[in-house]
Amino acid sequence: MRLVAGGAITLEVVLPPALLFSTTSPYAVAVGIAMHAAFTCLKPRQLVTFSGLTVGTYLAFTA
């Protein structure tokens, strides 16, 4: 379980800078959407609004 938590924290730290560069941005968006979809699957009732807004923000970065 600690490995999963460490991976999630690492992704949360790495994704924002990755969104700033055009070469890594599409990959960062895909990873971010997948990560927040997984969060929603784990706790759907609590995180559906948060994950929906986060996915919308990731999609705004692609426009």
SSE topology:
Layout: H1 2-20, H2 25-42, H3 44-62
Helix pairs in contact: 1-2, 2-3
Low-confidence stretches: none
Number of helices: 3
What is the strand tally?
0
Largest sheet: none
Radius of gyration: 12 Å
The sequence of SSEs as H and E is HHH
Mean of pLDDT: 88
Beta-strand portion reads under 5%
Structural class assignment: mainly alpha
Number of domains: 1
Portion of residues in helices?
Answer: over 70%
Shape: flat
Distance between the termini: 35 Å
Description:
With 63 residues, the chain is mainly α. The chain has one domain (2-62). 89% of the residues lie in helices and 0% in strands. It contains three helices and no strands. The chain has helices at residues 2-20, 25-42, 44-62. Helix 1 (2-20) runs antiparallel to helix 2 (25-42) and helix 2 runs antiparallel to helix 3.
Key features?
single chain, 63 residues, mainly alpha, 3 helices
Describe the structure concisely for a colleague.
The chain is mainly α and 63 residues long.
